[in-house]
Amino acid sequence: MRTLNVNTPSHAYPIFIGHNVYQQPQQTLAPYIGKRAAIISNETVAPLYLPRLQAVLDALGCAYFSIILPDGEAHKNSQTLNMIYDGLMQHRAERNTTLIALGGGVIGDMVGFAAATYQRGAPFVQIPTTLLSQVDSSVGGKTAINHPLGKNMIGAFYQPQAVLADLGSLQTLPAREFSAGMAEVIKYALLGDADFLTWLENNMAALMAQQPDVLAQAVYHCCQMKADIVAQDEKEHGIRAHLNLGHTFGHAIEAEMGYGQWLHGEAVAAGMVLACRLSETLGYLKAADTERVIALLQAANLPVAPPRMPLDKWLAHMQHDKKVQDGQMRFVVLRAFGLADIAGQINTTQLQHALQPYLAA
Amino acid sequence: MRTLNVNTPSHAYPIFIGHNVYQQPQQTLAPYIGKRAAIISNETVAPLYLPRLQAVLDALGCAYFSIILPDGEAHKNSQTLNMIYDGLMQHRAERNTTLIALGGGVIGDMVGFAAATYQRGAPFVQIPTTLLSQVDSSVGGKTAINHPLGKNMIGAFYQPQAVLADLGSLQTLPAREFSAGMAEVIKYALLGDADFLTWLENNMAALMAQQPDVLAQAVYHCCQMKADIVAQDEKEHGIRAHLNLGHTFGHAIEAEMGYGQWLHGEAVAAGMVLACRLSETLGYLKAADTERVIALLQAANLPVAPPRMPLDKWLAHMQHDKKVQDGQMRFVVLRAFGLADIAGQINTTQLQHALQPYLAA
Predict the structure, then answer these.
(1) B361 has a pLDDT exceeding 80
(2) Which of B227, B276, B311, B360 lies at 20 to 30 Å from B119 by C-alpha?
């Protein structure tokens, strides 16, 4: 098991990563939960991993109750959030009851938001069970639900007490979801040092086979990058926005197709290809660079092109992006691998050029 | 016009108090709003004060749109909150669009919570139009909506950019609402120095007549007390809880009677009498002290007894209070005027003794 510390201005907390995070609960759980916990999971994850967590809490003498939600991005909304609040109120959860998020990114984002807002802030622990949530969404305190008109539009910055990333839980993850998580791993490789990009290209086959040491190395490296960025810029006033590489395009895909039709990671994969194309349009990347990204995404069985949409649909969705400032869309682009930037002066002609091969007639 | 500064760990901001806060918008508004604002008000306040605010924003060159909500505590819930989110999304409000809360405590609490959570945090300005919101709820960053099972259960600590308390707007306030606000003024007198309590007793008639200087003095004094407390304890880990004097009982009254039947300030008035009775039960206050409080509340035309409820109803409501810890109810009591304390070991017998004259058969 490896331990990483996240130090934000508002709160410091550990991330435990490995195949044995449950075997040392005195270290990984006991210090971070109170006398009572609310375990919040979904219908898919609960049958797999709830009993083990309950046994650990029993052993620690922590009382608990469970709230089981429907599974999927389509349920990351105010109705499901109200199911959490209702369950907390009905079980008389107090301001010091620890909310435990057991599941993937949707569960983590929603439970984090519920914790941020229940009685104006309750403690919470993230137990991410998907690759995407382990490498990205469970770290850094971004919590949110979707609005019908835009993804993650309602939320808060709110840090957990601890994150427990059990790599063993990835063995039950459907292959499509594992690939979706790999999109965020690849994102870190495009944003970070060249060595990690090369390492990832060389180890993608081993990663896809979940070779334990390689998997642990990849998850640790991504969490470390994210922890470094979040420590510098918790509330995304600057460098943290780079982590949205591919996400402006990706969110448009998710919104257009209906939440849950494309997995978030799949939309981000196609979105990163588009961010590369836009970087080409701006004269930053070469076509060969984008081809290298496409090859890596394909090795992870990810889509490398968006669904066909007309330009006005793209524009309509992207004008709801949280990075929009004074009506101006802002995109994360790559000046080179490892050198991201925010482009705030993109005009429609440039966007049309970048999207041209993918537009609907 | 008087100016007070609130300095919390998370944010510092001014409160402008007076009959002329709108006459100096370069000082009171311009520095705190961006290029675009969302004015959020209700059906009662908007016809009275929206046009004046719009004229001021026009003069400042700030673009704006308005969202008008139904009026009343009964609407302080997730449905109305979603009306705010929907309006913000439909008007493409951005992360730097300033939300302006124009109304009383319900509007201020809801808009503050919408601002805390829209795109993970948008700037907001409080323009409280009721006495209660001017002396209490608009200051200090407590934002919330109600849950069907408990008041203010969903919320956040989130500070405004500025607070504009226009005392002139109190002239259109119904007498019952003005009295309700006076309950919070009296609360500050019970919590603070003896001089203010005596001053309030001597000036209650002038206050009820809205004599301008006396009114300004009272609002300023309350805001100053609150600013001092919030600067010491923004997130209510300690002394800030004293501001909940009478509120545990008051929230039970509101929940039992249905939100909006008793005004919040009316419920707090009766709740403060009960807090005094509990303080008597604990041997802290004398009956004569409680009678002094009752006389002051009566001078403000406030209720001094709760509706009749059986003890188990009281207990059921109060066990949902945010101050409950490890199943133990905690009450704000007065060891003496000006000396509040948290009593965490109150048993049912003591509660029954304090409530006895008011219980339903």
Answers:
(1) no
(2) B227
